[in-house]
Amino acid sequence: MNIKSLLLGSAAALIAVSGARAADAVTVAEPEPAEYVKICDVYGAGYFYIPGTETCLRIGGYIRYDIGLGDIGSFDGAKTDDVLNGKNQGVWHKNARFTLKTWTGQETELGTLKTYTETRWNFGNDNANEDVNGAHNKTPSLNFAWIQLGGLRVGKDESAFNTFIGYAGNVIQDTIVPYGDFDTNVVQYYFDAGNGFSAVVSLEEGAGSGGFYVGSIDSYVPHVVAGVKYTQGWGAITGVAAYDATYEEWAGKVRADFNVTSALSLFVMGGYGTHKNSLVDNGTFVVTDFTGRDFYKQWGGHWAFWAGGTYKFNEKTAFNLQVSGDQDKNYGVAANVAYTAVPGFTITAEVDYDHFGHFNDFTPYGNWTGADKKNSVGGLLRFQRDF
Fold first, then answer.
1. Where is the signal peptide (predicted)?
2. Contact 343, 323 (CB under 8 A)
3. To 10 degrees, the CA torsion angle through 218, 221, 223, 225?
4. d(CA 64, CA 152)
5. Alpha carbon distance 7, 102 (integer Å)
6. How far is the CA of 321 from the CAs of 329, 334, 387, in angstroms?
């Protein structure tokens, strides 16, 4: 073998080895397929399938910041003692809230299986005439945690005495004259005929214990709520009746909603209840001016009314109004302007007025809210980001 042949052979061998190594360097393993979130549009916007299941999940909530001022009875103001001179004075009523919500939905052979939860966390001062009224973390609250299969719902909800007929107006302080209590465990059944007619029957536990008012049942007999509704394009007519098993009292409400135009909607609601047994005897005296309030008939006297409406100036701005009153001459007016600055962010400015008919008596108004005037005025500015 001559020198030329040897060099050519060596060069060929080097090229072959180099090529093999280069091929080895760029060889990579096949990527594993990624499992992306799949959108679920069966139950509305925001749902997605939980990977590996047939369950659709939506996560949402809101962050809210309230700034209130005014008389305490208006629900908007607060008072405290000056730390330097001890003088009782007005103070801002502020509260920040974070609310987390979850929804799930799944189709089954027995109907749609749904769940809903809502938990709230608050930081702020209290709406009361306190010696020290500093901002603090408040107890978290579980406001909703229910399961529904078809028309059957069980769990933590708000009373059908309010949810089925409606929460009165689109104002922040819609309970200046209260229209019923809220938190309760329920076993209820909804029926929807599909032609505008619907109905509900709800067995409820109530909430609260001790003091001047007992809201929870004190035996195995539950509170009972039943309601019927007829809905059409012009609006709706709704009626609910409730039996408080603790006090053995009855209450009812009837409501009419009217879609006057695409911009204007109105409502009127009336309530009536008995109070033969719910006057409070604390062992020493009977508080006759407590007006027999129970879990459902929260207003004073036998009857009460609520009326109001919403007018939409445009897609971003709406005006809301509510007036209310009861037999004990308690009256309230609440009005606000709600402005959606950008989708998901709303600023609401509200003015509230209260008149307390039994200001000097031991009533829920004077005791629970710390009302310090017979006529109270306040205002509230709310910033809310929904997601």
1. 1-22
2. no
3. 180
4. 32
5. 76
6. 20, 6, 26
| 3-state secondary structure (DSSP) of residue 288 | helix
Average pLDDT over residues 306-321: 98
This prediction has a pTM of: 0.83
- C-alpha closest to that of 93 among 135, 137, 63, 140: 135
Phi, psi for residue 124 in degrees, rounded to 5: 175, -175
Could you read off the pLDDT of 76-120 as tens digits, one per residue?
888 777 777 777 778 889 999 999 999 999 999 999 999 999 999
State pLDDT tens for residues 206-218.
987 544 556 778 7
Residue 27, token pair as written in the block: 């060889």
pLDDT tens sequence across 111-123: 999 999 999 999 9
CA distance 128 to 150: 43
With 0-12 / 13-18 / 19 or more C-beta atoms within 10 angstroms meaning exposed / middle / buried, residue 92 is: middle
Write the single-letter amino acid at 43: Y
**Angle, CA 283 vertex, CA 277 and CA 289 arms, to 5°:** 50
Burial of 352 (0-12, 13-18, 19+ CB in 10 A): buried
In residues, how long is the chain? Answer: 387
Q: Which of 349, 350, 340 is nearest to 385 (CA)?
A: 340
The structure tokens listed for 295 are 């879990």
Return all residues near 43 (Cβ < 8 A) that are at least 6 apart: 56, 58, 103, 105
pLDDT at 76: 86
Start-to-end CA span in the chain (Å): 83
- Structural domains of the chain in order of their starting residue, each with its CATH number: 62-386 (2.40.160.10)
Token readout for 347 is 């600023």
